[in-house]
Structures are given as structure tokens and as C-alpha cells.
Amino acid sequence: MPNLKQELVYGGGHWLLWEKKDEVIDILQRWLKELELSKTAAAL
Fold it and tell me: Whole-angstrom Cα distance, residue 13 to residue 39?
């Protein structure tokens, strides 16, 4: 899968989005920003 990344969130369990929501949001925002930047660079 293109642009697939793996991140590890320590201390999270089965309810990761509930238990560590701020960390998950940060990870997703960084990943989306990287995708946006790579698409912008490819367009140049």
C-alpha cells in the first residue's frame, strides 16, 4: 500500500482512540501533512 506508515503508541490498549486520542490525532495529522507535501512536490 503506497505511503503506508507504522507508528507505535505506548500505553494504548484495545481502545486506542479513546485512551490516547491526542497522540493518535497528532500521528494522523503528521501523516496527512506528509501526503499533502509529497503530492505538492510531485506536481512541481
Answer: 33
Helices then strands (H, E): number in the chain?
A: 2, 0
Please give the grid coordinates belonging to residue 35. 501526503
Domain boundaries, the chain: 11-44
Q: Is the pTM of this model over 0.90?
A: no
Cell representation of residue 11: 500505553
User: In which residue are the cell numbers 479513546 written?
Assistant: 18
Residue type, 22: D
The pLDDT tens digits for 1-22 are: 788 899 999 999 999 999 999 9
